[in-house]
Amino acid sequence: MGTTGTTALAAAPDITGIQSALVTEGLDGWLLYDFRGLNPIAADVTGVARQRGHLATRRWFYLIPAKGEPHGLVHAIEAHALSHLPGTTDRYSGREELEAGLARLLAGLRRVAMEYSPGCAIPYVARVDAGTVELIRSFGVDIASSGDLVQRFSAVWDEAEIAAHLTASDRLYRVKDRAFDEVARRVRDAVPTTEYDIQHLMDGWFRDEGLVSDSSPNVSAGEHAGNPHYLPTAESSRPIGPDEIVLLDLWARLDQPGSVYADITWVGYTGRRVPERYGRAFGAVREARDAATQLVQDAVRARRPIRGWQVDQEAARVLREAGFGAHILHRTGHSLGESVHGTGVNMDDLETHDDRQLLPGTGFTIEPGVYFADFGVRSEINVIVHEREATVSGAVQHDILTLAP
Q1: Per-residue confidence at 358, pLDDT binned at 50, 70, 90?
Q2: In the 3-class helix/strand/coil scheme, how is 216-261 assigned residue by residue?
Q3: How far, in Å, CA of 396 to CA of 6, rounded?
Q4: What pLDDT does 404 receive?
Q5: How far apart (Å, rounded) are the C-alpha atoms in residues 106 and 98?
Q6: How does pLDDT run across 195-250, given as a tens digit for each residue?
Q7: Interatomic CA distance for residues 311 and 293, integer angstroms
Q8: Which DSSP symbol is given to 50?
Q9: Which residue segments constitute the domains of the chain, with CATH numbers given?
């Protein structure tokens, strides 16, 4: 990133919509704050993350009040950090000027939203450090969580983003098919291959498809599939042989500004007949995935509120009833956005208790899995909530794929 110019890549935040939401929630304002990228939510809502040509290395604040004009506070050497936003901006240089500027910014306010989560119940929202929370409270201002505001004004996709997600999803499925075809060919022809070999091929296919990602895909064989966050490297990779599980987890977005991620997981078996133990585990995962998806779809169709923790509970219930409760290692799903783990609601009542509501225009994964010392299985799909329905982005896996003739 350069150091001059302030060309914006995105429209200003929906000030009118945010103010309406603040009034509804009984808040005096939304105080957005960042220091050196610690709060990507604030940077996303304000568009600072998408500005070209300037640095943002000092603390900045941007207050959207429930009524009236927004106000910013920036360091004097980064005077243009918020110049693309509506409202006025004050400058500071020393810490005394910063505190005086905050006192003016917060004058008359009693309760503001920030990226804070009581008890860190939702750590994905908890982006403001404790010291800054203390500083704001020292002005007699109470702080509420901005979690629901983040849902509405950072996690909701527009039509262009939905279209970009669907295109990325289609391309991921093509890469997945090519990878399984190559594994099957090499096993059939007794061509030595490793997880890393297939991962390297998939990296190239990502480039061919115009996809970018924050990581190479996960190719896990045998016992490595029992580790949900395993990633092969040249040093750690193992061979892929006959008669074993191969799990592919791949996530990417289009290589263009404003695109959002798709993220899928499929499972294959390098033999003619899937062992009963593997098939039973995958069957439970499939039923858990489908039950969670149906819960969301029924709620959206009935216009009934549905929250992330409820989706996780439904999937976990199915896995526990099938006898796999001890083998659940992670939540049922996560928000998708311009980062693979987006700022919206997660399908989680295991690692956190995410009580945020699924809103129209949001996208997320449903990906239950069960894991053992010698193998693991997971099925991951992407769901988009619309006004009257919730749809799955691509094909859904029903059985473990057999990768040998």
Answers
A1: very high
A2: CCEEEEHHHHHCCCCCCCCCCCCECCCCCEEEEEEEEEECCCCCCC
A3: 44
A4: 83
A5: 12
A6: 999 999 999 999 999 999 999 999 999 999 999 999 999 999 999 999 999 999 99
A7: 8
A8: G
A9: 15-154 (3.40.350.10), 156-402 (3.90.230.10)
